Amino acid sequence: MRRAYRLDVRLAVVVTLISALTLVGAGTILSMEFTRGQFAIEERGLSTQVEEWAGSLRYNHGGMVVFDRPAEPSSEIDPPYTGLLSGTRPVYGYTVTDATGAVLDRSDVNAPAGRPGLADPEPVLSSGPTLDGTGPVLIAELYVPEFGVWLRLARSRSDVTALTNAFFAQSLEELGWAALAMLVVMVITAVSIVRVSLLGLRRVAAQAERITFDNLGHERLAGSSAPAEVQPLIAAVNHALDSIRAGAVAQRDFSIHAAHELRTPLADLKLRLEGFASNPDRDAAMQDVDAMARLIEQLLHIARLDGGTVFSLQSLHLGEAVSRVLQEEASRLVSGGWLLEAGGLDLPVQVIGDSTLIALILRNLLENVRKHTPPGSNVRVSISNDGVLHFTDTGPGLPQGFPCSDFARFVRGNDNTRSGSGLGLSICETAMRRMRGTFSLEPAAGGASFRMAFSLDRSLEIGRIH
Fold first, then answer.
1. What's the CA angle centered on 169, arms 164 and 175, to 5 degrees?
2. What is the C-alpha to C-alpha distance for residues 154 and 152, in angstroms, rounded to an integer?
C-alpha cells in the first residue's frame, strides 16, 4: 500500500514552484531588455514620448505654432521624478521648427539643434548637439502635418536617471501583458494541480456511491489514493460500515433463529387444533396458525435476502426456470378454480439469475392470487425477448395509490390482517434486486400486472456475433 500524500504539502510545493517560475520569468524578461541594449529602451521611450507630445502643439494669439507644455510634477517629489522639461535636472528638451529650420518654440535647456529632415509621419531617431552646445543628445523628430512643423524631442544619453525612468516605464508597459499571461497560467496551473490532487478523493466518493446494503459484506472505501488529511475520515467510515454490517448480521441471525424456534410450537399447535371437531373458533384458529406459519417463512426469506446469503447467479434459460415453478404450482392453482396461462416460455432468452430466487418470486405472486383474487380469475405468465417476465391476473387489483415500486414491508392492500403480512411484494423486489433486475407494478385496466426485468446474458450474444 503506497503512502498517502498530504494535500497541504502538495499545494505548498505548487505555490513555491509557481512563485519561482514567476520570478524566473520576470528576470528573464528584464535580462532580455538589458541584453538588447539600454539605448534601445531609451529610443523606444523617446519615440513614444514625441508621439504623445505632438498633440500638445497649438497656435498662439500671434498665429505662431507653440508647444503647450504638460503640467510639471510638484517640486516636493523626490529629485529623480521632478520636472520633465524644467527644474534643476530636466529630462527632456524640445524645439518646434519649420521647413527652413527656424525655431518657432524651444525649451530652456537641452533644446536640440540642426535642420529638420524629411516630412515623415513616423518618429525619426538621430543624435546631435543642443542649441547651447552642452553636448550630444538623442533626438526623436516627428513631422506634424496639421501645423506643417517638426517637433524635435531630445534627451541626454548620459542622464542615468532619465534612462532609469525610461527603462521602468517601458518594462512596466511590456511586463503588464506578460504579468497578465503569467497570472492566467498560474491560475490554470493551480486549478489543475488541485483537481489532480483531489482525484483520489473523487475516486473514494465514487466507491461510496457503489456501496449498498446488498454488497455491504465486501465493499469498503479504499483510501490509498486519497490525501492524508482524509485518511482518518475514510477509516472512520469503514469502521462505521463494519458496525452496520455486524448489526445486520446479528439481526439476520436473530430472525433466522427466532423463525426456526417458532416452527416447532406452531406445528404442534396445528396438530392439536386438527384433533378438535370443526367449529368456527377452531377454523379461525387454524387460519391464524397458517398465517403465522406463512409469516415465519417470509421472515426467513427476508433474513436470507438481506443478510448477504450468496446466491449462485448464472446464465439460465428464463423459460425453463419459470416452467419448472408453474408445473409444481399449477395443480394446486387449477384445483382451486383459477385458470393459468403461459406464453413465450419457449423463447431462447438467456438471463443472469438464480432459479431459487425466481421460484421464490413466482410462488409469492401465486400465493397473492390465491389470497386476493376470487376463484375463476385468470393468471397469465409471459416472457418477452428483452428478458422481461410479465405476471398478470384478472382479480380486483391493488388499491388506488398503492406504490408501483420500492414496496415497503408490512404494507397491505387492505386492513385484513389475516389476508397477508405485507411482505410478499417486498420479497419479490428484493429478490429481483439481488439478481440485478427490477420489479415493478404496471398499470392495468383490471386486476394486477407485475413486470420483472432481468439482465440479459450479453456474453452469448457476443459469441453468436463472432
1. 115
2. 7
Same domain, yes or no: 352 and 460 = yes
Residue 49: inside a domain: yes
Look at the chain and report how many structural domains it folds into: 3
Q: Cβ distance 366 to 327 under 8 Å? A: no
DSSP label at residue 105: E
Query: 241-275: per-residue pLDDT in tens?
Result: 888 877 777 766 666 666 666 666 767 777 777 77
The amino acid that residue 342 corresponds to is A
Hey, what amino acid is at 355? Answer: S
Q: What is the pTM of this model?
A: 0.46
Strand partners, 149: 144
**Do residues 20 and 71 share a domain?**
no
Neighbouring CB atoms inside 10 A of 109's CB total 18
Q: Using the 8-state DSSP alphabet, how is residue 307 labeled?
A: T
Grid coordinates given for 276:
378438535
- 31 and 57 belong to one structural domain: no
Within 10 A of 30 (CB to CB), how many other CB atoms are there?
14
Is residue 335 packed enough to be buried (19+ CB in 10 Å), middle (13-18) or exposed (0-12)? Answer: exposed
Contact indicator for 347, 383 with CB cutoff of 8 Å: yes
For 298-310, the pLDDT digits (tens) are: 666 666 666 555 5
Q: Max CA-CA distance within the chain?
A: 145
**What is the tens place of the pLDDT at every residue in 384-428?**
999 999 999 988 877 766 665 556 555 555 544 444 556 778 888
Question: Crossing angle for the helix pair 38-53 and 160-197, nearest 10 degrees?
Answer: 100
Domain that holds residue 453: 311-465
Candidates 413, 1, 52, 459; CA nearest to 228 is 1
**Beta bridge partners of residue 275, listed in sequence order:** none
